[in-house]
Amino acid sequence: MKKSLLFIASLLFILTSCKESSADKTERSGEPDVYNVEDDDAKMNQAMIDAKNSIGDFKKAIASDNPNFEYFTIKQKFEADGGAEHIWVGDIQLIDNVLMGIIANEPVYTGEVQLGDTITVNNADISDWMYYDEGKVVGGFTIRAIRDALSPEEQAQFDAENGLIFK
Question: Which end of the chain offers a freer environment for a tag, N or C, measured as fewer CB atoms within 10 Å?
Answer without folding.
Answer: N
